[in-house]
Amino acid sequence: MNYVDILGLFAGACVTISVIPQIVKVYKTKKVRAISLKMFGTLTFGLAVWIVYGILKSDLPIIITNSVSFCFNLTMVYFIIYYEKE
Amino acid sequence: MNYVDILGLFAGACVTISVIPQIVKVYKTKKVRAISLKMFGTLTFGLAVWIVYGILKSDLPIIITNSVSFCFNLTMVYFIIYYEKE
């Protein structure tokens, strides 16, 4: 792994962890009305396609970071649907 | 440009356009309290690093899609700061 790969992992780490404060905020406040389900739905789908792209290009930073991002954003999709019902 | 590049552009397009419904929602409702500034701040920074990674790898789909994403998410950062004040 060279320094470019490490930069890719760092970039992916920033994008990936960025969703955590949003997950925590929604979990604490239970408020999701201002948040767009369309955004997190499309984002989660796009991340799944990024994972396929990473596999086809054998690009490890893309595969790893987008897989974790995918899980986090899927959690957001679940939270939005769950708390919107309440 | 081969089919893998096209897949990458498609993945990036999904992730990129995903923010549009959120921008529209905030613009219409002016409500940002449920939205995390930390999320969009960290995301925007991470996208900037992805652009650098794409340049170093000469990976066109990464450069193009993350540049557009960067602009959209910077708009969200501006909206959150602007409407939180009001």
From TrEMBL, chains A, B:
It comes from the Bacteria. Gene3D superfamilies: 1.20.1280.290. It is found in: Membrane. It is a multi-pass membrane protein. Pfam families: PQ-loop. Keywords: Membrane, Transmembrane, Transmembrane helix. Its main location: membrane. GO terms for cellular component: membrane. The chain crosses the membrane at residues 6-27, 39-56, 62-83. GO terms for molecular function: sugar transmembrane transporter activity. This is MtN3 and saliva related transmembrane protein. It comes from Flavobacterium reichenbachii.
